[in-house]
Design brief:
With about 700 residues, this protein is of the alpha/beta class. The chain has 3 domains: about 1-265, 2-enoyl-CoA Hydratase, Chain A, domain 1 (Alpha-Beta Complex), CATH 3.90.226; about 300-480, NAD(P)-binding Rossmann-like Domain (Rossmann fold); about 500-575, N-(1-d-carboxylethyl)-l-norvaline Dehydrogenase, domain 2. It contains 28 helices and 20 strands. The chain has an 8-stranded mixed beta sheet, sandwiched between helices. A 7-stranded mixed beta sheet has the order 1-2-3-4-5-7-10, with helices on both faces. It is globular and about 90 Å long. It binds (S)-3-Hydroxyhexanoyl-CoA (3H9). The site of (S)-3-Hydroxyhexanoyl-CoA (3H9) has 24 residues, from strand 6, helix 3 and helix 12.
Length: about 700
């Protein structure tokens, strides 16, 4: 065996040169891998004892893509194109042996081989779109030549990989190997040597492009089909243009188009934001004072208290991954309603073909309903999801303390209340933690894990890992009102309200936020959540627009009216009554309503969030700025192509942020706008968040 580089070995076995890549954790195409592949192919071509080449990887996966950490440092030779060209032009057959994932540049490497074999569990995809990019090493030109244009469009604009079975069906892999992959790939190479004949390169194939040549309108149809999902993102459209080029241009011209569009994306702010976010998401799982080897509490059974919207959604997360759940309610009627909603959700999903009828039954079978809290005695994790009332929560935790088995984790799904106060009613505050799910809890990816003063490291470690198990992204935060997400949202909602009082119609404020990239604006969000959260009909004094709307039974979407009027399809239209109410309250407060620009609306909604985020860092409520961004992207729909509020602040320049906050402080005369010390100091040093 010859070591070509620290990451690639060369060995001839039974007449086949095997290049073994070893670049943990994901065998990314770092410089040492590229260099090794280049030298390995050249060596095999010159080696009379080798009649074919197999590319195989050590560890858990085939190549998972270019080394993203190298993107910011500039290219070190050899470039991937040079390596892949050498493979493409090899006179000896090259076989990629795929296990784990072949992603991005990894799949492009495999597509530059003459053949691909894979184990049944392998997944193959071009996820560059998620990094604000397109496959820049020939993937956009080769993939459609293999799987056809429609499949390539789907794969490249969604970034979702396909499994080995589908890859076999579409021709992306030539064989699924049972047993040892390396041996299987060598045996496959021998078959190809024995068959002889001319080697076909993917670049020379174009049979699968014909349909799109005959029906070029399919591109626009596809564009329309993804328009809603990809609103605001540049990369999906750029990927489509490259596939169009594969159809309309000769291969080498298509490659030039790919390179040009790749460079445009790579040098733009969206790719920077999305790549930043890739690492932010992975960073969020790391807790400096909780070592990786901290013991975890095994979670085999979960209890959920409350079968309302939140409780039901939370329970679905568990059963989706096979964890049994007991849901406890106070009244039989409420329990039945809650279980009925869960069943309906699953049946709807089955109707769309995403799960089978057997899955619906299997998941429902994992749920046990109960009216008795003592049924939670054998649960390893109990999540309370009742309404936001400290007295009620304290009562539940007092009772849980007497019921739950020793070591069980007692969690509250509170979105704002003090976890320390809740933990204080138990004799085991080390076992108490906040697990703040976001609505709809079975859909939203974020889990705010709220650490109390006494929460143990084992409990934190368990909850962070458990989040991964139920396919959530966890961010650890500290105790304060609203934690990270809602605390920052409160200031935005406050400003939205102020803007409406000062004369900006709610639908315009919402439009500005929507155009910025949020899925909905502040008032639409209130209508969706319900205006009556925390409102009491008996004590209501009509003290603000929200209360007055509730009194008029305009309590949001569920009552067909709120800040907006809704038709029978829940399509909103601006409600004149709401503007009248704002005018009335403005007059009472002595505010003269005026025209307000979109720029002002945006700044007044976003800048306070940044300032609040800085305060959160100052107080140590979040571990790092990028955690705040993860909270916002996964919990509140902040557009990932803008990275998150703290990344966005960096892109504006912190000195500019401070300047603008001060300008609003001067013009409004309100300390609301006072930039916090942490932000001022950081800006003063020319620093950035993170
Ligand atoms: C590309 O290929 C461009 C081309 O078209 C060429 C153009 C010329 N680079 O996610 P995990 C790290 S773009 C560097 O927790 P999992 C990651 O940061 C690329 N590092 O594991 C983490 O580090 P740490 C296209 C990478 O098992 C560790 O590996 N490819 C890369 O849950 C473990 O990661 C992609 O977009 C990378 N490419 O999931 C694939 N990938 O431990 C991106 C990962 O220090 N990767 N790391 O925090 C993934 O989707 C997942 O990592 C994968 C494993 C599914 C592979």
């Amino acid at each position: 065996m010859v070591q070509l580089t620290s990451m690639v070995d060369y060995e001839v076995e039974d007449g086949v040169a095997v290049l073994t890549l070893d670049n943990p954790p994901v065998n990314a195409l770092s410089q040492g891998v590229r260099q090794g592949l280049k030298e390995g192919v050249a060596r095999a071509l010159a080696d009379d004892t080798a009649r074919a080449i197999v590319i195989h990887c050590k560890g858990g996966t085939f190549i998972a893509g270019a080394d993203i950490t190298e993107f910011s440092s500039g290219l070190v030779e050899p470039g991937l194109h040079e390596v892949l060209d050498a493979m493409d032009n090899s006179a000896k057959p090259i076989v990629a042996a795929i296990h784990g994932t072949a992603l991005g540049g990894g799949l492009e490497t495999a597509l530059s081989c003459h053949f691909r074999v894979a184990v049944a569990s392998a997944r193959l995809g071009l996820p560059e779109v998620n990094l604000g990019l397109l496959p820049g090493a020939g993937g956009t030109q080769r993939l459609p030549r293999v799987v056809g244009v429609e499949k390539a469009l789907q794969m490249m604009t969604s970034g979702v990989p396909i499994g080995a079975a589908e890859a076999l069906d579409t021709g992306l892999v030539d064989r699924i190997v049972e047993g040892d992959l390396r041996e299987g790939a060598i045996a496959f190479a021998h078959e190809k040597i024995d068959q002889g004949g001319k080697l076909t390169r993917i670049r020379d194939r174009d049979d699968k492009l014909q349909e799109a040549r005959d029906h070029p309108e399919l591109f626009d149809r596809f564009r329309q089909s993804i328009a809603r999902k990809t609103r605001g993102f540049l990369a999906p459209e750029y990927n489509i243009r490259c596939i169009e080029a594969a159809v309309t241009q000769p291969f080498d011209e298509g490659m030039k188009t790919e390179s040009k569009l790749f460079m445009e994306l790579m040098s733009g702010p969206q790719a920077a934001a999305q790549q930043y976010f890739f690492f932010a998401e992975r960073q969020a799982g790391k807790v400096p004072d909780v070592p990786r080897d901290t013991a975890e509490i095994p979670i085999a059974k979960v209890g959920v208290i409350g079968s309302g919207t939140m409780g039901g959604g939370i329970a679905m997360n568990m059963v989706n991954v096979g964890i049994p759940v007991t849901i406890v309610e106070v009244k039989q009627e409420a329990l039945e309603r809650g279980l009925g909603v869960i069943r309906k959700n699953y049946e709807n999903t089955a109707r769309k073909g995403r799960i089978s009828d057997a899955d619906v039954t299997g998941r429902m079978d994992l749920i046990t309903g109960s009216l008795d809290l003592t049924d939670l005695a054998d649960c390893d994790l109990i999540i309370e999801a009742v309404f936001e009332d400290m007295a009620v929560k304290k009562d539940i935790f007092t009772r849980l303390d007497a019921i739950a088995k020793p070591g069980a984790i007692l969690a509250s799904n509170t979105s704002a209340l003090d976890i320390n106060e809740i933990a204080g009613v138990t004799g085991r505050p080390e076992s108490v933690i906040g697990l703040h799910f976001f609505s709809p809890a079975n859909v939203m990816k974020l889990l705010e894990v709220v650490r109390g003063d006494k929460t143990s490291k084992e409990v934190i470690k368990t909850c962070m890992s458990f989040a991964k198990r139920i396919r959530k992204v966890a961010v650890l935060v500290g105790v304060c009102h609203g934690f990270v997400g809602n605390r920052m949202l409160f200031v935005r909602q406050f400003q939205a309200e102020q803007l409406a009082l000062e004369g900006a119609p709610p639908h315009r404020i919402d439009k500005v936020l929507y155009d910025f990239g949020f899925p909905m604006g502040a008032f639409q969000m209130s209508d969706l959540a319900g205006l009556d959260i925390g409102w009491n009909a008996k004590t209501s004094k009509g003290a603000n627009v929200r209360e007055r709307l509730c009194e008029m039974d305009r309590r949001g979407q569920k009552t067909g009216a709120g800040f907006y009027d809704y038709d029978e399809n829940r399509t909103p239209s601006p409600a004149p009554i709401v503007q009248e109410l704002y005018a009335e309250f403005a007059a009472k407060a002595g505010i003269t309503q005026r025209e307000i620009s979109d720029e002002e609306i945006l700044e007044r909604c976003i800048l306070p969030m940044i300032n609040e985020g800085a305060r959160i860092l100052e107080e140590g409520i979040a571990i790092r700025a990028s955690d705040i961004d993860v909270v916002y992207v996964y919990g509140y729909g902040w557009p990932v192509y803008r990275g998150g509020p703290m990344h966005y602040a960096n892109s504006l320049g912190l000195d500019k942020v401070v300047e603008k906050l001060r300008a609003y402080q001067r013009s409004s005369g309100s300390d609301f706008w006072q930039p916090c010390k942490y932000l001022v100091d950081l800006a003063g040093k020319g620093g950035r968040f993170g």
